Amino acid sequence: MTSNIQNIKLNIMNPAIAKEFSEIIGVVKGCRIIKSDSALTPDLYIFEINGNQEEFDLIQSRLVSGKDSEIFLTSEKTGSEMLMRAIRIGVKEFFSQPIKRSDVEQALKRFKERRAPANPATHQKFGTLISIVGSKGGVGTTTISVNLSVTLAQKEQDRTVAILDMNTLFGEISLFLEIYPKYHWGEITKNIERVDDIFLMNVLSKHSSGVHVLPSPGYLDGHQAPTPDIMERLLGVMKRMFDYVVIDCGQSTDEATLKTLQMSDEVLLISVLSLPSLTNTSKLLRSFIDLGYLRKERIKVVLNRYISKSEISVQDATKGIGHDFFWIIPNDYGTTMSAINSGKSLPEIAPKSKIVKSLKQMSETMFPGAKAEPKKKWGFFNR
Predict the structure, then answer these.
(1) Residue 298 carries which DSSP code?
(2) What predicted TM-score, i.e. pTM, was given to this entire model?
């Protein structure tokens, strides 16, 4: 019978840090520390590093050779570059010092899960991809993406939600949620061959609402632009990790966006009651359908910022685009701008407003009574 005890060896110079790791590991069921001169082969090696290239080369060579099953790193030196170097060479976890007990415990839990024998009878549930694309700039694509994500996250406690910002230069999701992420999807495109759930969860930022955010670079820094293959790999991993993945596609219709739309379970095409927007909506609908990217029934046209006294009626707009509106979101400029300027979601600042009620009703209509299956509780590299 194979032992279910995981042997862990420490290579930590700082006695106080070594003691902390020892105490934490000592109370984690199924894990034990083995001495440096033990003949037992460690299942996990935890190294303390200073961050020089020789250390990374050594660790990479150990991983490539198969000498160590897994390696965790810890260092008093922090920084995004060190973290990304660790991820690129295959390190599963990185702990900044001073270490946090909860971070280590969660990392060991994930380690044990990876070491557990696979159960072939376990059903793999895939999440739902929701792409949101605008008929033109300024129609509220990001506003809807952000607030739909938060609404879905609040709907049920065990519902896991992520949002992906595909607006390369003008991505604003981080501003809308007032978060300051260290990483963006440019890090993914540079390391697409390494993308798995561990890698991705350590690049994502978590908002207080529970929504996990993968922002855009926000500037032109020479990163590799997403390709259809990159999007297929990235979204495939995200579908396995989250119940819902909301993608803010902006107004792009490049190949990567078209691949994203093809993979999506739901596509929301955002329009407003203006002639340019409705004209573009009609063109996009015809293009998506005629070129075979999407079936008509998979596209949900959402009318945003609706004003009842608009010069163009809903009936005329419906005839003009040749497609019914799936949902009509009322105009609430004051509340929306207040949320944007304060870096908060609409459900946070105005939970009883008409626009928030509309978004909640839309999510209920899209996913009526859907009870999300519990997903793994993910931790992060210490930020």
Answers:
(1) G
(2) 0.71
